Amino acid sequence: MAFSQVTVESSNEENDITKSNLFKFYPNPVEDELFIIGSNKIKSIEFIDVLGKRVAIHHFNKSIIKMDVSQLKSGIYLIQATDENGKQETQKLVVK
């Protein structure tokens, strides 16, 4: 019986998840509806394209958000959330 060598590496994704305290969202990639869950109330969500241009901004005052993103063109965006304390976080979003 032979065993092959197994290498275990820590995943940056796991670290990113634990560092991501402001908001989580799903699905990613998204087609029509995006769900965002904030650890605090979210005041604004910005969508920024790969060229750095703000293509949309939405204002809220809640921690659970359902958004229609069907108006966004297919591609990669940064989604930036600002919470009620002024804290910001940015994550990558893929729109189909």
TrEMBL record:
Pfam families in alphabetical order: Por_Secre_tail
Record keywords: Signal
Domain Secretion system C-terminal sorting residues, every copy: 26-95
NCBIfam families, per the entry: Por_Secre_tail
Protein name: T9SS type A sorting domain-containing protein
